[in-house]
Amino acid sequence: MKDMNKIVILDGYTADPSAQAWQALEEMGELTVYERTRAEETVARAKDAEIVLTNKVILGRKEMEQMPCLRYIGVLATGYNVVDLEAASERGIVVTNVPAYSTESVAQMVFSHLLTVTNHTEHYASENRQGRWTKSPDFCYWDAPLTELAGKTFGIVGLGNIGQHVAAIAHAFGMKVVAQTSKAADMLPDYIGKRTMEELLAESDVLSLHCPLTPDTKHLINAQTLQKMKPTAILINTGRGPLVNDKDVAEALNTGRLGAFCADVLTEEPAKADNPLLACDNAYITPHIAWASTEARARLTEVAIGNVRAFVEGKPRNVVGIKG
After folding, report:
1. pTM for this entry
2. Positions marked active-site
3. In sequence order, what are the beta bridge partners of 8?
């Protein structure tokens, strides 16, 4: 097999900084792993490859037209918008992804963000590193409100794998769970109430976004929808950055129209220095790491390698493109 396949990984670093994670692919072909690839380097690095793996490097029609040997694209993620599926289909290129590998990891990050807002753990830990507790006249102190989640309403937009897992955790916290979803109400667990988007905005003490990014959901959260939310609400986005209008959310935070915004994704990544959310006191931003737990990355590489093996053996799996 080694002589038959040239395998190129265009951006292996974020999935696993150690190239050793990909060694199993050497059994299937001549392997080259690049940590990162700029757009202008893509064709030069992959023009002779039959198998290309990518995380965020775009493989569009222009790139594919200059890769005559390409037979397979493996996306090192669940979302596959970095690949032009129409162009791949026309050329008979198989495209696969890695579904549901980060469900637990992303759901955990949702509540890490939420508890940061409600319990201020890092704030108090930071204060105590500076000796504040040792100087306290009382056995405890607090200067920020501590909020119980039990009894609050947790709203979810989108009940895919992650949305459903988040719902189960919110329920375990004793929260009332409501969701806007295409699923029929009688198909939902008893603890999830189906709502329209209007109802969800009005009811939610916490609103968490888990829907795909489509033309209909781009800037789903904007100046108009923010006006329909509680001014104390906590908005969480671990889905896709453009689900929210960054400028409108920043304005809502700065004017007291939104309690807090927690996000692991932004419209542009890496974040631009002038993104207004970065300067908001009540915005809590992490650098797109919800998917990146050690366990989730291990699952990602295992499934990605398995996808390549299945393709080489003539039985492709997790296909989102067309079989060649």
Report:
1. 0.92
2. 240, 269, 288
3. 32, 52
Residue 315: other Cβ atoms inside 10 A? 9
Spell 11-38 as b/e; 16+ CB within 10 A means b. bbebbbeeeebbeebeebbbbbbbeebe
What is the residue whose two structure tokens read 């549901």? 100
Tokens representing residue 117 in the block: 């807002």
Please state, in angstroms and rounded to a whole number, the distance separating the CA atoms of residues 213 and 27. 37
Residue type present at position 86: E
Which residue is associated with the tokens 């905005």? 201
> How is residue 163 annotated by DSSP?
H
> Are 200 and 179 a contacting pair, CB within 8 Å?
yes
Q: Which residues pair with 83 in a beta bridge?
A: 59
Ordered alpha helix ranges (H), the chain: 42-46, 61-65, 85-90, 103-119, 121-129, 161-172, 197-203, 223-227, 246-254, 294-312
What are the DSSP calls for 287-314, one per residue? -S-TT--HHHHHHHHHHHHHHHHHHHTT
pLDDT in tens, 192-213: 999 999 999 999 999 999 999 9
